[in-house]
Amino acid sequence: MAIVLSAIIGSVVLALSGCSDQSGQTEKTLRVGVITYSQDDPFINALTDELKAHLKTMESEERRIIVSIKSGNDDQQEQNEKVEEMIDAGCDVLCVNLVDRTAPYRIIRMARNEKIPVIFFNREPVKEDLMQWDKLYYVGCDAEQSGIMQGEIAAEYINSHPEVDKNEDGKIQYVLLEGEAGHQDAISRTEYSVKTLMKNDVSLEKLSYQFADWNRGQAENRMNRLISQYGTEIELVLSNNDEMALGAVEAYRKVGYIRKDWPVIFGIDGLEDALEAVKAGEMQGSIYNDRVDQAKEMAKMAVTLFEGKDLDQESLKDGRYYFSEYKKVDGSNIEEYLNAEEEEADGKNMEP
Ligand code: BGC
Ligand code: CA
How would residue 303 be classed by pLDDT, with cut points 50, 70 and 90? Predict the structure, then answer.
């Protein structure tokens, strides 16, 4: 009896302390601290949900994984303080979605002092900063690719639907909704979607470019103003993301134009509401920003770094960067993406 009891007490103590028992078995706890730039960004929330789900699947008898998610509330100072709290609470790996991608310095210094690897995601620090220490990584996408793809699907649609040119002047009058000044995705998406349309023989006339902070409500406001200024003249809306494209959709729903007076509208991200809008014909396409792949990679990196093993160098650029591939979504493959979305909601976690 005494022996059994001491064995039980022994194993409880071992489980709590995470040390090896006599048989060489270990139970370790990986604490992942995730910090986003804002708690109100649907793409970021979908990405962190995926990350949590993937880390859960990587638990085993030997390894518990605890994930804590906080937001910087759009304030770099506040984000720095929250990172400090996470470090003090004993986190092993940090996943950081910077508020200001040009200001990672304090976070890097704090993490480096405590030897805690940092996986930056979605908001890319400049290379100089990422190269400050060899335990800094970045997971995201090549924004230029999304701009090119958006330009391609828009050009394909316009070239095969002459009615898009409502006033038949041979030019497409367009407005562009931009994410956020200084964000690598906003800059490249704007530049390359326009360039690609022109390269694909669409002649464009720019009516207006508006920043709307990646946000649906702000985009709706901007769009309302543009509609009162230009009325039915607007033939194309290019948006740096789906949320803002959906803001434009909302503005057109409310203003009550008949469908043939609407412009064609293109977004980026492939979030569920946008997929529904593509299916309903209110948007003509989106570019899938592969949150499942990005989350999987971050989860894999976090575990590998925690175990002190080497990362798979083949999939990394310059040993530090992982970029997911974007994919085109339009009327031709929308069902595939909607089905994948449903299966994901049912917990099957499938990629299209
Ligand atoms: C996404 C946006 C998101 C932004 C946040 C972009 O990659 O497409 O939807 O708001 O990242 O940083
Ligand atoms: Ca026209």
Answer: very high
Pocket of ligand 1 (CB under 6 A): 41, 43-44, 122-123, 185, 214, 241, 243, 268-269, 289
d(Cα 108, Cα 85) in Å, to the nearest integer? 14
Q: How far is the CA of 214 from the centre of ligand 1 (A)?
A: 7
Give the tens place of pLDDT for each residue, 68-101. Answer: 999 999 999 999 999 999 999 999 999 999 999 9
More confident residue, 184 or 27: 184
Domain spans of the chain, in order of start: 20-141+291-324, 144-288
Which ligand 1 atom is nearest residue 37's CA?
12
CATH code: domain 144-288 is 3.40.50.2300
pLDDT at 24: 52
User: Which among 253, 275, 265 is positioned nearest to 150, based on CA atoms?
Assistant: 265
What gap in Å lies between CA 292 and CA 16, rounded to an integer? 33
Average pLDDT over residues 202-222: 98
CATH code of the domain occupying 20-141+291-324: 3.40.50.2300
